[in-house]
Amino acid sequence: MITSEITSAARLIKVENGRNARFRVIVLGIALLVLIVLGAIIFTLVDGSMPVFKQLGLSFFTSKEWDPVAGHFGILPAVYGTLVTSFIALIIAVPISFFIAFFLTELCPYRFRATLNAIIELLAGIPSIIYGMWGLFVLAPILADHIQPLLTKWFQHVWLLKDIFAGPPIGIGFLPAALILAIMIIPFITAVMREVFDVVPKTLKEGGYGLGANRWEVTRDIVLPHTKVALTGGVMLGLGRALGETMAVTFMIGNVNTISIGLFDSGNSIASVIANEFAEAHDLHMSALLALGLILFFIAFLVLAVARALIHKVKKS
């Protein structure tokens, strides 16, 4: 009897070990699949970019001229437009997102909180082409008729700002593209900040209130220091979204291959160049577009690496 029970238990353990082994193999395979897909993307971009790197060399990175008909490919204007619009969008979006998250977690009546959270999540799910169309037909006329002339008038005698807020007031350019990007990334950053603020232990906040601090002081002196690591990640998530955004920027940036300090001037971005020209490209032109994709991938990777370094530094401090 005892021998039979031991044999049965051993059989059950063997079956369970087999199931665990198969589950481990499946999970490992799925994890490796992600790496394989990532490797395939990198290989495709690098392999496709080689012809333009070999033919144009360093001038591909330093030239400002982009003329596919003449075979001239310089990426400086596209890189400049991508970075300028993304960082302006971040400057606009981060404080707005912070105050929205602060309102939702600290000031908003509880019965409205779920509705407002749902609206923010809905905004995050709207396709970018909808934002682009809204920006072109609604935001651009408002900017052209009211905002841009006013900014030009205000800063026309201020050193440097008169050059920054210069350009034709047509509602299209670096600043309009940055504004539409800011509107797009605000829901993402707000959602992250709201979730982060919600997980702060109540005892910490109650301790601050017990010492006589108001809601703003508790958020500034207790919530922000406690959540700065996660907040950094949320901001970088927004920046990553802005860097890779395509359709909305294509609608709003003007698609002109120039570098200008004037925020009202038209420009270009890496994603908009690829979106506009990929269907008609071939040979060296196609290689140049794949190289742009590779550079955009590298910039996004660099942003994530910097974010990880910042988070690691904050954790150590």
UniProtKB/TrEMBL annotation:
Give a GO cellular-component term: plasma membrane
Q: Which segments constitute the ABC transmembrane type-1 domain?
A: 79-307
Residues annotated as transmembrane:
21-46, 78-104, 116-144, 164-189, 246-264, 284-311
Q: Which SUPFAM superfamilies match?
A: MetI-like
Keywords, alphabetical: Cell inner membrane, Cell membrane, Membrane, Phosphate transport, Transmembrane, Transmembrane helix, Transport
Q: How does it sit in the membrane?
A: Multi-pass membrane protein
Q: Which InterPro entries match?
A: MetI-like, MetI-like_sf, Phosphate_PstC, Phosphate_Transport_Permease
Q: Which GO terms describe its biological process?
A: phosphate ion transport
Q: Where in the cell is it found?
A: Cell inner membrane; Cell membrane
Q: Name one GO molecular function term.
A: phosphate transmembrane transporter activity
The family line of this record is: Belongs to the binding-protein-dependent transport system permease family. CysTW subfamily.
Q: What biological function has been recorded for the protein in this entry?
A: Part of the binding-protein-dependent transport system for phosphate; probably responsible for the translocation of the substrate across the membrane.
Q: What is this protein called?
A: Phosphate transport system permease protein
